[in-house]
């Protein structure tokens, strides 16, 4: 698995799209810090960029890489190598390469600006951790979609719809539900609903760390009221970890019965 991971990682790090992904965060970070000399405001500005763009890139790269490497994967499957070893190597290679591009692209401008000697260092690290979590989650979800759909167009459409649902539609439906049933106590429901969307959960995690009550929103405020900042951070991290692990376990289970 390590050899496959190394090959996938080195192959993807030479990809022009990976360079574009790195360049986007690098240039955005430089421009944002040049226009705004407040590191805390810069971190807050990057929240919406990361929780929307990172899942999208993870989804698109995951689904495209799976389909484009299918012939190479079939060649590996003809060798005496376990299926789980092959796909875990490819999954970790892709996820780590995207995470490295994201972390370096965003980290270099902030490091040059002095984030290491700033009080915002822990908030910035939480931003990086959340982006890495979202990368792993959506790459694993896209791999699951590709395993379930032989047709590339259908798989690509399902992957984009999944991102669109979790990034945009889910919040709209949740807001409509809260408005329609505002006479009922919905605190526990809001807690449960937020755990089913890793993007919302990531936003809550970052805002809890920043302790910005005005931006927490309904679910974030409920998190803070129920668990407090410290426990809320811990529970959010645990749920994000489950979101990272469960799709991988489902992928490994699907591989046992998948006909290639």
Structure description:
There is one protein chain. With 260 residues, the chain is mostly helical. The chain has one domain. The protein contains 10 helices and no strands. The chain is globular and about 55 Å long. The two termini are 19 Å apart. The mean pLDDT is 82.
What's this model, at a glance?
With 260 residues, the protein is an all-alpha fold. It has 10 helices and no strands. The chain has one domain.
Give helix % range: over 70%
Task: Give average pLDDT, whole number.
Answer: 82
Radius of gyration: 19 Å
Structural class: mainly alpha
- Poorly predicted regions: none
Q: Termini distance?
A: 19 Å
**Main beta sheet, described?**
none
Strand percent estimate: under 5%
Whole-number tally of structural domains: 1
The count of strands amounts to 0
Oligomer: single chain
C-alpha geometry: globular
Helix-strand topology string: HHHHHHHHHH
User: What is the count of DSSP helices, taking H or I runs of 4+ residues?
Assistant: 10
